[in-house]
Design a protein that fits this description.
Length: 103
């Protein structure tokens, strides 16, 4: 999963180059955004793993996916969905597992 965001950014950039096939590029961009969201959701699940090393690596990977997504044009509503479903829920789950208060 570590290199996943870099792949998604590369694919997204390639879709922008496919201007001749605008409909295919739009569909591919939508698919990439869906893959990004699924990656974020998958990492959220691993962030609550009981093994500290696994959990910490997942948190770092999640941070990289969120900060490394500059090359992908993510619509505002998808960011809101990400923070509602992944970040807030993820923080609450980690908080319950670890007993630490983050909010």
């Amino acid at each position: 999963m570590a290199g996943s965001i870099a792949c998604l950014v590369r694919w997204f950039q390639k879709t922008k180059e496919a201007v001749d096939k605008e409909e295919a590029a739009i569909k591919m961009s939508q698919d990439i955004l869906e893959m990004w969201m699924r990656l974020i959701q998958g990492l959220k699940k691993v962030c609550s793993d009981s093994r500290e090393e696994v959990r910490n690596h997942a948190i770092v990977s999640l941070q990289r996916c969120l900060t490394g997504s500059d090359g992908i044009r993510i619509p505002n509503d998808l960011w809101v969905q990400c923070f509602d479903q992944v970040m807030i829920d993820g923080i609450l789950i980690i908080q319950l597992r670890t007993g630490q208060n983050f909010l």
